[in-house]
Write a structure and sequence with these properties.
This protein has 130 residues and is mainly α. The chain is built from seven helices and no strands. Helix content is 79%, strand content 0%. Residues 13-23 have low confidence and may be disordered.
Length: 130
C-alpha cells in the first residue's frame, strides 16, 4: 500500500473514531432517541422502549439513565438477566461519574420491586468504588 493510500485509510479511521466518540448523550439527536425510549416506557410500549434505548447503547453511551430504562423495559419483557446486566452497567457508570441527583430525578417515578432491584445495583456499585 502506497503512502497516499495509507494516508487515506488513516484519515478514514480517524473520522470514524471521532464520529463515534462524539456520539454521546449530549448530542440532540441521541437525546431525542433516549427521550423516545423513556416516553415509550411510560406509555407501556416496553419493546419499543427497549429498541430505542438499544440504539443509544449501540452508539456507545455512558449515560446510566439509558441503561436503567433499558433494564426496566427488559424486566417488563420478562428478561431478568438482561435487566440485571443493564442495571449493573448503568450503576457502574453512575458511580464513576457521581451524577446521582440527575439520575435519581430521572427514575423517581419508578417504584416497587423494580426500583428496589435497581437501587440494590446502585448501592453495590457505589460501595465497590468506596
Amino acid at each position: 500500500m502506497g503512502f497516499n493510500m495509507q494516508h487515506k485509510v488513516l484519515l478514514t479511521l480517524a473520522y470514524i473514531f471521532i464520529t463515534l466518540n462524539c456520539a454521546h448523550a449530549s448530542d440532540p439527536a441521541i437525546r431525542a432517541v433516549y427521550g423516545d425510549g423513556v416516553h415509550s416506557f411510560y406509555s407501556g410500549d416496553f419493546q419499543q422502549s427497549h429498541n430505542y434505548l438499544s440504539q443509544v447503547v449501540d452508539l456507545g453511551t455512558d449515560d446510566p439513565r439509558v441503561y436503567y430504562f433499558r433494564g426496566l423495559s427488559a424486566l417488563q419483557l420478562g428478561k431478568r438477566k438482561a435487566a440485571d446486566a443493564d442495571f449493573k452497567k448503568g450503576a457502574g457508570f453512575e458511580a464513576e461519574r457521581g451524577n446521582m441527583r440527575t439520575v435519581s430525578r430521572a427514575i423517581e417515578r419508578i417504584q416497587g420491586p423494580d426500583r428496589l432491584l435497581l437501587e440494590q445495583c446502585r448501592a453495590t456499585a457505589r460501595l465497590a468504588l468506596a
